[in-house]
Design goal:
25 helices, Hydrophobic Seed Protein, binds magnesium ion, 486 residues, 4 domains, alpha+beta, 7-stranded mixed β-sheet, binds adenosine-5'-triphosphate, Hypothetical protein af1432
Length: 486
């Protein structure tokens, strides 16, 4: 087989060889070439030490603690060529904390370096000039059989670095490979070691799983093999939890099916995570009422749990905030038979215009994930057109045709909370009927409202704010209290 390697990569290899440093392509890129997939990045392993690699290239930087030198192309013709990593041969060393080698030691042969790698498919080297594979652990055979197998004794290898177990699951999802039996048994036996792994590393693997083509492969394996609670105990609570007749699946199965649909549709990370989290609180809120299970308030409690879990896993704030909003509002369309435009306007305001279409995507994933999609495509189209219609309408105080400054000018009022109350009341009227966003009308309302006794204005203002925020935000505080989430 002739492997197609970019000129840029070949050149780096040639520079190393010309300086008499043996070097090979290694890891994910060789695996992907053997599979006929396009490599995401290119890694080179070499006998040269960092201080020998650096002077050979113009733009380099130290990548990490493992002696990796990044060779930088600032104007690459392909993103995978921006940084090419060159790492000296390394030895496996002792891992007293199950996660980081106690010290990094250089190796002297390629075989030593391949031996410390995680799986046979990732331990194949490619001699660039000869176009020849070096494959001491029969990685090609496993690739043919679509099998994930550790290099050497799986029990020992997972003891050295427990994250490898999660990597095995991640590769199962990304490549649609099975996990070889002994490796599988060792994962089951060593699952508890994941406790020692940092949340950041777990999060990085979880993101890769969620972004893969079939996330439910990895998360389903995590469930069977006892790894799920080390990703988050909240996920495990949904396992086996039965729902009402509207659902063919248990809570956890439903979340996995929703996530798979989001992946199939190629939705972005925050939408996929919202699909995975949207019913996370159903086990907490489940109640038997009138001969069936109910989950009243699960979206309110769920938003809180999602926030805590994402925070614990150290997800970036921007991602977490989006996911939390989507979880909080995912129930919107489901139980309203006759939905009004003003309700849709409030929804756009709550979830923000930026996220409203993502909310529809979560809704679609949720619907497909039930296994018994009840909602007709007609109804979904109707929601779509209603959203489009209200997207042109004012939904915030800033969009009113009268400003706080103008209110003060008009009435001679001093700055203070009363200005905010007037604006909220005006907004509540405009959310109800956007035609009322007219200067003349609003100015006359300003005068009426300013004439009210201050307590009266404050009461109306607070009510309007509550209503503008959402129809049921009052209840949500009660719900959170009841289920003991903060
Ligand atoms: P991807 O396509 O996602 O980049 P990859 O196989 O390249 O997959 P990386 O995390 O980039 O995965 O790691 C590069 C290589 O380093 C792996 O192929 C493997 O040989 C080795 N490796 C990475 N992490 C570990 C680990 N925890 N233990 C042993 N070897 C590892
Ligand atoms: Mg890689």
């Amino acid at each position: 087989m002739k492997f197609s390697i970019p000129e840029e990569v070949k050149n780096i290899s040639l520079v190393l060889s010309s300086a008499k440093f043996e070097n090979f392509l290694v890891g994910g890129c060789v695996r992907d070439l053997a599979l006929g997939r396009k490599p995401k990045d290119w890694d080179i392993t070499t006998i040269a030490k960092p201080e020998e690699i650096e002077p050979l290239f113009e733009h380099t930087f130290y990548e990490n603690d493992y002696g990796t030198v990044g060779i930088v192309d600032e104007t690459p013709r392909d993103e995978s060529l921006r940084v090419i990593e060159v790492t000296p041969y390394r030895l496996e060393s002792t891992y007293s904390d199950f996660r980081r080698p106690d010290k990094v030691e250089w190796g002297t042969t390629l075989e030593e370096d391949l031996k410390r790698r995680d799986f046979t498919m990732n331990a194949i080297a490619l001699d660039v000039e000869k176009n020849e594979l070096v494959d001491p652990f029969q990685g090609q055979k496993d690739i043919e059989k679509k099998l994930i197998r550790t290099v050497g004794n799986p029990d020992e290898r997972f003891g050295e670095d427990a994250l490898r177990m999660l990597r095995a699951l991640r590769f199962a999802s990304e490549l649609n490979f099975a996990i070889e039996q002994e490796t599988l048994e060792a994962i089951m036996k060593n699952a508890h070691l994941l406790e020692h792994i940092s949340k950041e590393r777990i999060k990085d693997e979880l993101i890769k799983i969620v972004m893969s083509e079939n996330p439910s492969i990895a998360l389903g394996l995590a469930t069977q093999l006892g790894l799920l609670k080390y990703i988050s105990p909240e996920f495990e609570k949904g396992v086996g939890v039965e729902q009402n007749q509207a659902h063919a699946y248990t809570v956890w199965e439903h979340l996995l099916r929703s996530l798979d649909h989001a992946a199939k549709k190629n939705f972005p990370l925050h939408v996929r995570l919202a699909a995975l989290f949207h019913d996370i609180a159903k086990p907490h809120t489940r109640k038997w009422l009138n001969d069936q299970w109910t989950f009243y308030g699960h979206e309110v409690v769920g938003a809180k749990i999602a926030k805590n879990v994402l925070n614990e896993l150290k997800f970036p704030k921007e991602i977490a905030e989006k996911v939390v909003k989507l979880v909080r509002w995912h129930m919107f369309f489901s139980d309203t038979e006759t939905i009004t435009l003003s309700a849709v306007r409030r929804m756009v305001r709550n979830v923000t215009p930026e996220l409203i279409w993502d909310l529809m995507s979560v809704r679609a994933a949720d619907r497909i994930g039930t296994g018994r999609p009840k909602e007709s495509p007609y109804r979904l189209r109707k929601y779509h057109s209603m959203i489009e219609e209200v997207m042109r309408d004012p939904i915030s105080v800033k969009q009113l045709k009268v400003s706080g400054g103008e209110i003060m000018e008009l009435t001679g009022a001093a700055p203070g909370p009363h200005i905010g109350f007037i604006l909220e009341i005006l907004l509540s009227e405009v959310l109800e009927d956007p035609k009322k966003n007219e200067k003349e009308y609003l100015e006359s309302r300003v005068k009426d409202l300013y004439a009210l006794p201050p307590e009266e204005l404050a009461k109306l203002g607070l009510e309007a704010r509550m209503k503008n925020e959402s129809e049921d935000e009052k209840e949500s505080e009660e719900i959170k209290k009841k289920f003991g989430v903060k």
